Amino acid sequence: MNREQVLSIKELNRLIKRKLEGDYTLQDVWVRGEISNFTHHSSGHMYFTLKDAESRLKSIMFASYNQRLPFLPKEGTRVLARGSISVYERDGQYQFYVNQMQPDGIGSLYLAFEQLKKKLEEEGLFSPERKKPIPKFPKAIGVVTSPSGAAVRDILITLRRRYPMVNIIIHPVLVQGKGAASSIAKAIEAMNRHGEADVLIVGRGGGSLEELWAFNEEIVARSIFASRIPILSAVGHETDFTIADFVADVRAATPTAAAELAVPHIMELQQQLYYHSQRLQRGLLKKLEQKRERLNRLNRSPVLQNPKRQLQQPAQRLDRMTEQLLYRMRHRLNASTQKTAKLNQKLSAFNPKDQILYARRRVNTAERQMLQAIQVAVRASKARLSSQLRQLDALSPLKVMQRGYSLVYDEKEKSLINSVSKVQPGDLIRVRMTDGRLTCHVWSMEDDNNDNR
After folding, report:
1. Are 79 and 111 in contact (CB under 8 A)?
2. Which residues pair with 429 in a beta bridge?
3. Do 425 and 443 form a contact (C-beta atoms < 8 A)?
4. pLDDT digits (tens, 9 = 90+) for 354-369
5. Residue 44 DSSP SS3
6. Could you give the CA distance from residue 231 to residue 120 in angstroms, rounded to a whole number?
7. Which of 84, 167, 369, 391 stands 20 to 30 A from 225 (CA)?
8. How far is CA 246 from the centre of its chain?
9. pLDDT digit string (tens) for 73-126?
């Protein structure tokens, strides 16, 4: 065995890879099969297996390729895939590297159309409640279309014919091919940003599905939905329906129809103006006649014919009411006066001045009664004192002494000597007379019982 021919696994896989990548047949091949084990990795790459009834092929589609897919692959979808065969060296497996893919049996554009239509419808972009009304008399109309197509010519002719006073702002865009969708979306955004148009016509003339495809792109649908300005879609012919038609506020069958829907016809407006002016004139004449007739009736009315008569009855009524008013005022005044007098009378009973005067009278009366009682008591006391003085005077020793009696005291006049037994011969005694005193010396004593001492 030649050791120089021994290869490592990696070298062998790389050799096989080179062999496969050197085969031009395997580097550009179309494969028909059904998708299984489908995985859409967070990196954006798609990993899946293509299979048929008898075999399987491990496949991969990198994010740089699958971003342009017009439909979303899923489990069980039958597809036609285009790509190359190579080997994943680490696992030693050959794989199909897909760079194009389309549904098998149904057009990819149609499938993409249906998928996007379903998605936007579920988000509410087709909702009738969100559609804006088209102004009846726009001052400016923006036209987003190709500047060289027949559509812009039809739109301009129709607008100038029907409503020549309207301003037309044309924003040229690509309507087919690469970059057409973004061109249309940017134009709509620019028209909204400038705010010069009252309504937008977005469209183009007829064409194949591929030529009209820009109006089926999601970016165009979302720009139409986000537009503050009402949008008329006019894409292709009456039988052509695009996503833009479903999102737009009004769908027109053709660009010419869009122009007719955007503005009224000046002849119709003139006819309506003439009709309304005639109607207004007739109405004014009728109104004038009615006013004139009413004025004549008023001129013939008794009020204007003899206005003083109309014032007689109110004047009489005014007089009666004046009399009644005066009578009631006087009656009320008298009642009020009487009521006031009664209240004053009641109030006077509680007048402090009267209360003081009454109290003072009572005090004076009490004073007089007290003086009289005192005088009576004094006189009685004086009489009683006089009687007692007379009685006392009658019992006074002086009175007795005036009748010749005298009082005898001891020498010191401390005690009264009323018995001879209280003195001794030789004692000094004091004798009190009515007009003076005597000092006597007891020389002898004689008892009334004739006993000499």
Report:
1. no
2. 440
3. yes
4. 888 889 999 999 999 9
5. coil
6. 17
7. 167
8. 40
9. 888 888 889 999 999 888 888 999 999 888 876 566 777 788 888 899 999 999
Residue pair 252/233 in contact by the 8 Å Cβ criterion: yes
Question: What residue type is 344 in one-letter code?
Answer: N
- Does 250 score more than 70 pLDDT? yes
What is the reported pLDDT for 2?
A: 55
β-partners of residue 234 are 203
The CA-based dihedral angle spanning residues 354, 356, 359, 360, taken in that order and rounded to the nearest 10 degrees: -110
- Residues 6 or more apart whose CB falls under 8 angstroms from that of 177 comprise 214
Residues making up the chain, counted from first to last: 453
- CB neighbourhood size of 240 (10 A): 17
- Predicted confidence band of residue 1 (pLDDT cuts 50, 70, 90): very low
Identify the pLDDT of residue 116: 87
The span from the CA of 142 to the CA of 279, in Å, is: 36
Query: Any idea which residue has 């183009």 for tokens?
Result: 204
Q: Which residue has the higher pLDDT, 325 or 52?
A: 325
Measure the CA–CA gap between 251 and 291, rounded to whole angstroms.
51
Residue 428 bridge partners (DSSP):
441
Residue 53 has pLDDT above 60, yes or no: yes
Residue 5 DSSP class: G
> pLDDT at position 197, please?
94
The number of beta carbons lying within 10 Å of the beta carbon of residue 205 is 21
Cβ neighbours of residue 73 closer than 8 Å, sequence gap 6 or more = 35, 38, 46, 48, 66, 79, 101
Residue carrying the six token digits 């091919």: 177
Task: Give the list of residues 6+ apart from residue 152 with CB closer than 8 angstroms, or none.
Answer: 143, 145, 146, 170, 255
Rounded to 5°, the CA angle 340-341-345 comes to 115
- Mean pLDDT estimate for the chain: 88
* Cα distance between residue 44 and residue 64, in whole Å: 8
DSSP 416: B
Residue 250 three-state SS:
strand
Q: Which of 56-65, 109-118, 408-417 holds the top average pLDDT? A: 56-65
Strand extents, DSSP E, 160-317:
167-172, 199-204, 231-235, 250-251
| Packing angle, helices 108-123 and 218-226, rounded to 10 | 30
C-alpha pair distances (Å), 113 with each of 40, 72, 82, 334: 21, 11, 22, 103
Only one residue has tokens 């009521």, namely 339
Distances (CA, A) of 405 to 66, 141, 236, 402, 429: 179, 171, 184, 7, 16
Contact 200, 227 (CB under 8 A): yes
Q: Which two tokens stand for residue 27?
A: 């580097």
